[in-house]
C-alpha cells in the first residue's frame, strides 16, 4: 500500500482526490442534514419518514439516469479538468440555495438543491474514474481507484457524522464553505484533454442513454461488470433508505445513531477498498469479488437476525453512548461493518476493470453507461423499499431481500472472473 499512498503526494492525483473528497462530503452533509431534520423534526409516522428518505434518494439518483450519457460524451470530447472547474463552480450556487432551504426551513428548496446536486454529481461522476488512466500508469489505476473509493467513503463518514451532531444553521454555512474549497481544489487538477475523436454529442437524454448503454453492454465483460456493480448499489439503496426509520422506530435511537450507522458503513467500504489493493497487488481482477459479496450477504443476514431480536428498554430515544451500551449494539455494528468491508472488496476491482478494459478515449462514456444502469438499479431498490414499506413489510424484514440480492451479485461476478481468465 506504500505505492498507493505515494499517489497522494503527486499533483497528477492529489487535486482530483481532494476535489472528490470535498464533493462527496458536501453531498452527504447536505442530504443527511436534510433527511434527519425531516425525520426527527417534521414527520412522526414511520411510513412518511420512509417515503421522504426514499424521495430524497430518488431525486438525487434521477439525474444519473437521465444525464449520464450526455456527461460521458462531454467528458470524452472535452478537457476533463475544464469540466471539473465548471461543475464545482455550479456547486457553490447550488449550495447557496440548499443553505437557504435549511435556514428557512423549506422542504421544496432543500429537495430542489438535492436534485441539482444530483446533476452536479452526474457530470463529475464519469470524470473521477475516467481521468485516472490518463494521469496514472496502468499498474497504478487499481491503487488510484481504491484511494478514490476509500476517500469517498471517509468523506461520507465525515459528512454523515457532522450532519448528525451540528445544528442545522451550522450545516447551512458549512455546505457553502466546502463548495468554495472544492472549487479551489478543482482548479489544481492537471489538464486531461480528449484522447479520441467523438463525432458529435447527442443532447437528447433518452436516445443518448439508449445508444450508450447498448453500445457498452454488448461487450460481455463490461456487461457482467456493470450488472455486478448495479446489484451492489441496489443493495446499498435499500440499506440507505431504511437506516433512518430503522434506527428511530426499531432500535429507538436518535438521529446521531442514524449517522453512526451510515458512518460505520462508510468506514467499512473504505477499509475494503484498501484491503483489495493489497490482495491484488495492483492487478485488475475480479477473482475476489464472488466470495466477497457472499460474505457480505452473510453479514446482512446476521444484521437482520440481531435487529429482529432487538429489545429496547422502554426509555426515550437512545443517544449514541446509551445505544453503544446496549448489549446488542456491538454485534449489530460489527455485522454492519462486515457488510461494508466485504462490499468494498467486491466493488473496487470492478470499477478499475471498467476504466482499463476500453481505450482512454472511451473511458468516460463507459463509466457513464455504468452510472446509468447503476442509477436505474438504485431507483428500483428504492422503489422496492418504499413499496414493501407501503404494504407493511418492516425495515428489518427487508434486509432478507438484500441478502438474497448478494447471491445474484456473486453469480455475476463469478461469470466475469471466468470470462477474464
Describe the structure.
There is one protein chain. This protein starts with a helix and ends with a helix. The protein has one domain (2-192, 204-420): Up-down Bundle (Growth Hormone, Chain: A). It is mostly helical and 421 residues long. It has helices at residues 2-6, 14-42, 46-77, 80-103, 107-130, 132-135, 141-165, 168-186, 205-217, 220-249, 255-280, 289-308, 320-325, 329-357, 363-390, 398-420. The relative contact order is 0.16. Helix 3 (46-77) packs parallel to helix 5 (107-130), helix 9 (205-217) crosses helix 15 (363-390) and helix 14 (329-357) packs antiparallel against helix 15.
Integer tally of domains: 1
Q: Alpha-carbon distance between the termini?
A: 25 Å
Q: Rough shape?
A: globular
Number of helices: 16
Instruction: Please identify the oligomeric state.
Output: single chain
The first-level CATH class name: Mainly Alpha
Number of strands: 0
Instruction: Characterize the biggest β-sheet.
Output: none
What would the average pLDDT be, to the nearest integer? Answer: 83
Determine the strand fraction and express it as a percent band: under 5%
Rg from alpha-carbon coordinates: 20 Å
CATH superfamily: MFS general substrate transporter like domains
Name the features.
421 residues, Growth Hormone, Chain: A, mainly alpha
Compact overview of the structure:
This protein is 80% helix and 0% strand. The chain contains 16 helices and no strands. The model has no long low-confidence stretch (mean pLDDT 83).
Please outline the helices and strands:
Blueprint: H1 2-6, H2 14-42, H3 46-77, H4 80-103, H5 107-130, H6 132-135, H7 141-165, H8 168-186, H9 205-217, H10 220-249, H11 255-280, H12 289-308, H13 320-325, H14 329-357, H15 363-390, H16 398-420
Amino acid at each position: 500500500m506504500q505505492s498507493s499512498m505515494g499517489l497522494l503526494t503527486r499533483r497528477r492525483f492529489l487535486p482530483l482526490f481532494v476535489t472528490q473528497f470535498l464533493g462527496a462530503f458536501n453531498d452527504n452533509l447536505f442530504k443527511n442534514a436534510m433527511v434527519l431534520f425531516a425525520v426527527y423534526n417534521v414527520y412522526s409516522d414511520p411510513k412518511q419518514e420512509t417515503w421522504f428518505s426514499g424521495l430524497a434518494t430518488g431525486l438525487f439518483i434521477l439525474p444519473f439516469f437521465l444525464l449520464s450519457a450526455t456527461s460521458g460524451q462531454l467528458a470524452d470530447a472535452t478537457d476533463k479538468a475544464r469540466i471539473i472547474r465548471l461543475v464545482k463552480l455550479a456547486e457553490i450556487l447550488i449550495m447557496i440555495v440548499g443553505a437557504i432551504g435549511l435556514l428557512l426551513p423549506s422542504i421544496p428548496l432543500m429537495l430542489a438543491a438535492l436534485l441539482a446536486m444530483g446533476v452536479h454529481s452526474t457530470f463529475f461522476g464519469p470524470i473521477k474514474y475516467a481521468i485516472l488512466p490518463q494521469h496514472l500508469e496502468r499498474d497504478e489505476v487499481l491503487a488510484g481507484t481504491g484511494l478514490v473509493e476509500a476517500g469517498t467513503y471517509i468523506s461520507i463518514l465525515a459528512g454523515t457524522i457532522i450532519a448528525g451532531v451540528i445544528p442545522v444553521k451550522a450545516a447551512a454555512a458549512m455546505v457553502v464553505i466546502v463548495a468554495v474549497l472544492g472549487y479551489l481544489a478543482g482548479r489544481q487538477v492537471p489538464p486531461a484533454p480528449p484522447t479520441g475523436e467523438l463525432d458529435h454529442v447527442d443532447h437528447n437524454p433518452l436516445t443518448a442513454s439508449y445508444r450508450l448503454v447498448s453500445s457498452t453492454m454488448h461487450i460481455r465483460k463490461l456487461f457482467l461488470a456493470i450488472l455486478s456493480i448495479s446489484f451492489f448499489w441496489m443493495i446499498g439503496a435499500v440499506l440507505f433508505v431504511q437506516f433512518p426509520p430503522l434506527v428511530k422506530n426499531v432500535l429507538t435511537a436518535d438521529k446521531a445513531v442514524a449517522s453512526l450507522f451510515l458512518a460505520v458503513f462508510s468506514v467499512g467500504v473504505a477499509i475494503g477498498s484498501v484491503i483489495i489493493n493489497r490482495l491484488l497487488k495492483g492487478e485488475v481482477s475480479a477473482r475476489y469479488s464472488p466470495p466477497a459479496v457472499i460474505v457480505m450477504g452473510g453479514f446482512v443476514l446476521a444484521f437482520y437476525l440481531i435487529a429482529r431480536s432487538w429489545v429496547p428498554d422502554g426509555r426515550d430515544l437512545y443517544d449514541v453512548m446509551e445505544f453503544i451500551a446496549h448489549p446488542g449494539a456491538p454485534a449489530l455494528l460489527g455485522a454492519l461493518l462486515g457488510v461494508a468491508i466485504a462490499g468494498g472488496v467486491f466493488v473496487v476491482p470492478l470499477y478499475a476493470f471498467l476504466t482499463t478494459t476500453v481505450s482512454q478515449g472511451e473511458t468516460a462514456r463507459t463509466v457513464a453507461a455504468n452510472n446509468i444502469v447503476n442509477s436505474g438499479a438504485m431507483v428500483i431498490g428504492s422503489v422496492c423499499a418504499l413499496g414493501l414499506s407501503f404494504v407493511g413489510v418492516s425495515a428489518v424484514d427487508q434486509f432478507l431481500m438484500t441478502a438474497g440480492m448478494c447471491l445474484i451479485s456473486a453469480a455475476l461476478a463469478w461469470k466475469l472472473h471466468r470470462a477474464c481468465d
